[in-house]
Amino acid sequence: MMKQVVVLVGAGSIGVAIARRVAAGKHLVLADYSLANAQAAAQTLENAGFACSIQQCDLGSKEDILKLVKYATSQGDVTNLINAAGVSPSQAPVERILQVDLYGTSVLLEEFGKVIAPGGSGVVISSQSGHRLPALPQEQNDALAMTPADELLELPFLRDISDTLKAYQYSKRCNVLRVMYEATRWGKRCATINSISPGIIITPLANDELHGPRKDGYLKMIAGMPARRAGTPDEVGDLAEFLMSSRGRFISGADFLIDGGCTASYWYGDLQYLKSTH
Ligand SMILES: NC(=O)c1ccc[n+]([C@@H]2O[C@H](COP(=O)([O-])OP(=O)(O)OC[C@H]3O[C@@H](n4cnc5c(N)ncnc54)[C@H](O)[C@@H]3O)[C@@H](O)[C@H]2O)c1
Asked: Could you report the per-residue pLDDT of 27-74, keeping only the tens digit for each?
């Protein structure tokens, strides 16, 4: 019998929380740009009974993604894809954010959409940040959703982006649109694909933001949002588990905000002051 394989790209806090919930009894491929992160996650998970292997993979590189597809399919049937890799606005320049978060995610969905097993499922971790961009012109939405992945970075309105927050927001908006586009292709293989848009979740990535140039804004935002606290990777894991379980089979091409009410408050509540700064 072929093994069932779960591929996790981005073996960080959110990714590992999801993998713990969906990878029991399957083979888990931990792919990360940082081998040290992948190794650390593998060690923890192996000590908890998971069967893992690791692969170095830069989500921003198509060559690496193709190698990952080849490796994962050599291990068995790829039943699940989790994309929880990404770089935040304080971690990288504009070009790198677009390369990894926008382009890389699009290539990953395209390539795993060719091999995902029947009945399989995937989740992409987007962000509440994408929900803060005002509505884009329909032709920009269409372009982000449907432009062949290899041509995405040539789109003129992406080439005009000069600040890292905008690059992140466009990337995360693109993730949601790309998932909508891919739902049809994945559906032809009887597989589902969805995105999750977390708010502030305490992880090393969020800690970089909490200690970076936007620190004060972050703390004020946390104090002002409906939940009055940041979230945890496990809470995102619970949502992803539902989407990837048998109970989530009627859900595809959809995006789920899990942000303690932050986005609602940004548009229509106490956090409206942020509109002038974001
Ligand atoms: N933590 C939050 O508050 C928050 C909020 C919204 C969205 N997100 C998104 O969640 C995802 C996971 O982040 P996290 O909070 O778990 O952070 P994390 O730092 O715990 O994990 C991120 C992982 O991605 C890996 N990574 C970075 N660049 C990569 C690349 N080019 N190729 C492959 N792997 C790469 C890192 O090495 C790390 O292991 C990211 O896409 C992030 O944008 C996080």
From this structure: 999 999 999 999 999 999 999 999 999 999 999 999 999 999 999 999
Q: What is this structure's pTM? A: 0.97
Concerning whether 181 is annotated as a catalytic residue, the answer is no
Cβ < 6 Å from ligand 1: which residues?
A: 9-15, 32-34, 37, 57-60, 84-88, 100, 125, 127, 198, 200-201, 203-206
What residue spans define the domains of the chain?
A: 4-199+230-258
- DSSP one-letter string for the chain: -PPEEEEEES-SHHHHHHHHHH-TTSEEEEEES-HHHHHHHHHHHHTTT-EEEEEE--TT-HHHHHHHHHHHHHHSEEEEEEE-----TTTS-HHHHIIIIIIIHHHHHHHHTTTPPTT-EEEEE--GGGGGSPPPPHHHHHHHHHS-GGGGGG-HHHHT--SHHHHHHHHHHHHHHHHHHHHHHHHTTT-EEEEEEE--B-SHHHHHHHTSTTHHHHHHHHHHSTT-S-B-HHHHHHHHHHHHSGGGTT--S-EEEESTTHHHHHHHSGGGGGGGT-
Which ligand 1 atom minimizes the distance to the CA of 16? Answer: 16
93-118 pLDDT tens trace: 999 999 999 999 999 999 999 999 99
**CATH for 4-199+230-258?**
3.40.50.720
Residue of 168, 170, 181, 266 with catalytic role: 168
Q: Is 215 a catalytic residue?
A: no
